[in-house]
């Protein structure tokens, strides 16, 4: 018989001096954080072997509450910091948590290059379509015609689709979920973390305080219900026409392929050199050019 | 990797105690490897690229990692990340890239992350003169990022000093848990000199003090009597939090007045209280000098030769060359200033370091700049001519 742990999230929270948290009551980020904790717990990793890296924004405040190795960095740069962390200590499971503004606007370049490089990092993108912390400015995922405090007459830019962006940039695992479907979210996050390579989980979330208020989309409950009504499971979506899918978003595991992982490839280079730093004989000609002093 | 293996691997990199002809940039790269650098994140930029190329080739040979990032912002971010996870880390760049790195450098000062940044200076502002020499980033190295902070900046003036000061940079970074900047320049980076490099086993290498207390008592930013706190890395069981927000001794964000004050005081005092340890000034012919030439880097090379020429012409002139540029070696420079009645400050910029001399001088003596910013070096004869002009 499987015993259900009732308060699994509590085991992973830092309790001293951290609460109450910064998020508004009803915010979806807490649900995304809970899903991530359950995913890590289900994989059985030790707390010491997990590093959570974030940038700036509401979502980026997740690490401070979690009892892991946590790194709260500069705006837009968590993936670049995470790259260094992972390379220096490959035992660490490195997870980046980031919002749509942090990851796709200021951090857009790092995002596509991290996906292209295919290092074993999991990226959790909490997409609430707006800059919450600074007060409701439009982000690269704000839908066309929606209101932000910096788009008071409606958004006239086109929005990014993070899933297609990651796919074309080379990510090996991509899933999308919502904070309404919290247990599915948790399962997909576990899959993403176990994937050897760059993985992305997009979490559709609600910012009723900024986005909801500006666009008259109602309370947190109403907005989370909106996610339920507008999400289509990937299996169901396959049977639907593009017209039927208009205005909806597809959830589930959307992309899962195999590619050489960066650090495994790097290790192959390191392995060419034996203990004394000499290249193995057959590789010697290939790689070793004379260093200074070698010619005499 | 055990110490003996690590040393054996390092010994494969260059031939020790043998005359070698190499560039300043090469010497920086070999110095980094000898100091135990295990991570380099960089982006190509003239005139610093050789450092990245040499480390791309050699880091895998010592079991370390090299990565070319998508830009300089990502490079310094990866360097900080790697350092947090326990690797001695470095990047190298030039003016435009150094500008891009400033925000994350500020993060490293705030979060007290050891790392080394080599800035091989070229002409600016903006794209400026990619292949020509300059010392115009002197003040940027001190004031580049926002907020109050106290950088450590080293300035070599020869190929051998590029090697020595890179090792010293790693040692200071570890001891003071701070970024250390090496201000090289295009001439030093590309100039070739014969050097004898020491065996990596003979070098004095500092590694940050590891915590002795159990994880539940560990404070990542503990304020100790000497302001230097031990440091754990990610994955060692300490599970600390790092942030660029002003934080308490544990590393958690704070808005309490006393904690904010103590944090910023710690950042200041960990440098100010150890300025004698950090300062490194070379003085030549200063014993009987009435005239002091104050110069660093390439300008100091020309000045050294100028002093030799001028001495033959009976000028009582000496050279003071700061190898630690920041924190400014106030005490040492003041001592020299009290003995001279003319100071000449040759710089490859429009006059940056001269301000420090004027700040320190409390007597009425003549302080003259000799500034060249056309992409060429100041020549010894230019300096001698300037001396003749001031002291006919």
How would you sum up this structure, described in words?
The complex is a heterodimer of chains A (296) and B (392). Chain A is α/β, with parallel strands linked by helices. Chain A has two domains: 8-259, Thiamin diphosphate (ThDP)-binding fold, Pyr/PP domains (Rossmann fold); 260-296, no CATH class. Chain A contains twelve helices and ten strands. Chain A has helices at residues 29-43, 78-88, 100-106, 108-117, 162-169, 182-194, 208-214, 220-230, 234-237, 242-245, 262-271, 281-287, and strands at 50-54, 69-72, 93-99, 122-127, 130-131, 137-138, 173-178, 199-204, 231-233, 249-256. In chain A, the strands form two sheets. Chain A has an eight-stranded mixed beta sheet, with helices on both faces. The longest helix of chain A has 15 residues, at 29-43. Chain A starts with 28 loop residues before the first helix and ends in a 9-residue tail after the last helix. Chain B folds into two domains: 3-202, Rossmann fold, CATH 3.40.50; 282-390, Rossmann fold (3-Layer(aba) Sandwich), CATH 3.40.50. In chain B, strand 4 (89-93), helix 5 (95-110) and strand 5 (115-121) form a beta-alpha-beta unit. Chains A and B meet through strand 2, helix 2, helix 4 and helix 11 of A and helix 1, strand 1, helix 4, helix 5 and strand 9 of B.
